[in-house]
Structure formats: structure tokens, C-alpha cells
UniProtKB/TrEMBL annotation:
Component of the cytoplasmic LSM1-LSM7 complex which is involved in mRNA degradation. GO terms for molecular function: RNA binding. Belongs to the snRNP Sm proteins family. The keyword Ribonucleoprotein applies. It is found in: Cytoplasm; Cytoplasm, P-body. Pfam families: LSM. GO terms for cellular component: P-body; ribonucleoprotein complex. This is U6 snRNA-associated Sm-like protein LSm1. Keywords: Cytoplasm, mRNA processing, Ribonucleoprotein, RNA-binding. InterPro entries: Lsm1, LSM_dom_sf, PTHR15588, Sm, Sm_dom_euk/arc. Its main location: cytoplasm. One of its GO terms (biological process) is mRNA processing. It comes from Eucalyptus globulus.
Length: 109
């Protein structure tokens, strides 16, 4: 039996190629997290640095800063690299979409 060496890590379906890159992680409950992957294990548990949660309502979205975030692997549905995306370089969102027209306050019934 032969063991995989360090050169074989990038040939596998490992998250190693995503280390220190900006990622979008879709969770089982529908949440979308963005951050820089700092660590992971064989169960796809992951540590995101500078994480934020993107909340989308209709055509609008906002990013909620979370900081350092640990994700349990069984909740991960999809992981993908973000190219040129906003928000993950710091703990605070850089840009938000601006609504068209006036904002209205909803009144409780």
C-alpha cells in the first residue's frame, strides 16, 4: 500500500487548493457564508476568517459580519471560490446594493 505524498494533495478532491482563498459556502439551512478558508479537516469542518453572511431579499442583499467562523462539515452543501467578490477582506461589508426609490417602514398589525 502506498501513501499519498504532499504533491498528490492537489490532485485529489481536497479543500487544500482553496486554503487562503475567498470562498462562498452554502449551508444546509440556506445560509450563504463568505470568508477566507484558513483550515479544514477530513469531515469538511472548516474555519473561515473575516466571514460574513449574505442575506438576500428580492433584488436586495446585505452582508452581516461574523468574524472568525467555524462551520461543521455536515452542514455544508457547496463550497466555491469567489473571484473579485466583496466583503471578505475585512470584518465589515464594503458595499451594499442601494434600493431603488424610497424606503418604507412596515407597521406591525
Amino acid at each position: 500500500m502506498s501513501w499519498a505524498g504532499p504533491e498528490d494533495v492537489y490532485l485529489s478532491t481536497s479543500l487544500a487548493s482553496y486554503l487562503d482563498k475567498k470562498l462562498l459556502v452554502l449551508l444546509r439551512d440556506g445560509r450563504k457564508l463568505m470568508g477566507i478558508l484558513r483550515s479544514f479537516d477530513q469531515f469538511a469542518n472548516a474555519v473561515l476568517e473575516g466571514a460574513c453572511e449574505r442575506v438576500i431579499v428580492g433584488d436586495l442583499y446585505c452582508d452581516i459580519p461574523l468574524g472568525l467562523y467555524i462551520i461543521r462539515g455536515e452542514n455544508v452543501v457547496l463550497i466555491g471560490e469567489l473571484v473579485g467578490e466583496i466583503c471578505v477582506d475585512s470584518f465589515y461589508p464594503v458595499e451594499h446594493r442601494r434600493p431603488k426609490g424610497k424606503l418604507r417602514t412596515l407597521k406591525a398589525p
